[in-house]
Design a protein that fits this description.
mainly alpha, globular
């Protein structure tokens, strides 16, 4: 699935920057990250996700940046 290791600050910043740069609306991207992080936080509380050292916001940024190329291909 997604890595359980803690991403470096540089890697995380680059992914977040790419997400925002490639999105047509920064606000909606920020809201999408926050919503995904909230979902992951509740999944962690319910025990649906395996133990992870990655914080929900970091995991949301990683997931959305991994999904971004797929979304860009669909929009073209």
């Amino acid at each position: 699935m997604y890595p359980t290791r803690q991403p470096s600050a540089k890697e995380l910043a680059e992914r977040a920057e790419n997400l925002i740069q490639n999105s047509p609306n920064r606000y909606l991207t920020t809201v999408r990250i926050a919503f995904r992080a909230k979902q992951r936080r509740f999944d962690d509380f319910e025990g649906l996700l395996e133990e992870s050292n990655i914080k929900p916001v970091q995991r949301a940024i990683i997931e959305l940046s991994d999904e971004q190329p797929d979304a860009l291909l669909l929009n073209d």
